[in-house]
Every structure is written in C-alpha cells, then in structure tokens.
Write a structure and sequence with these properties.
The protein is an alpha+beta fold and about 70 residues long. Helices cover about 45% and strands about 15% of the residues. It has two helices and two strands; from the N terminus they run ααββ. A hairpin with a 2-residue loop joins β1 and β2. The two termini are about 20 Å apart.
C-alpha cells in the first residue's frame, strides 16, 4: 500500500460508504458460494499472481505478466 492509501484505510468510513462496502462484500460472498456449490472454479488474486481455486480449475497456471511500468 502507498502512504496515501494507508492513511485513507485508517480513517473511519462514512455510513453510506460502509453500507456500499458491506453490500459489495455480501454480493461477492454469495457469488463465490454459488460457484462453489455448482462446482465451478474461481480466480482469486494472491500476492502478485492470480490463483485458480476449485475442483474443476484448469491444470495449467496462468502466465505471470510484468506489471505495467515494472522493471
């Protein structure tokens, strides 16, 4: 995180912003659970690369790409 994002993360959220965040988290949680029940894999971000999670996930690893502007 950058210093600015760390500062923003430490400030309390407004009630409207918290309600939006809660709504988004609930929607994502429900969709991930639905995909799990249906036996579908999901792609999640872990560290610096996407990770395929689930029983039907493809056997190959996605190619890692250098970040834009990265050395």
């Amino acid at each position: 995180m950058t210093n600015q994002s760390q500062e923003l993360a430490s400030e309390p959220l407004s009630p409207d912003t918290q309600a939006m965040l809660d709504s988004l988290q609930l929607a994502v949680t429900k969709m991930l659970e639905r995909k799990r029940r249906l036996g579908h894999y999901v792609v999640q971000w872990s560290g610096d690369a996407p990770v395929l999670v689930g029983e039907d996930a493809p056997a190959y690893e996605p190619a890692r790409r250098k970040p834009v502007g990265g050395d």
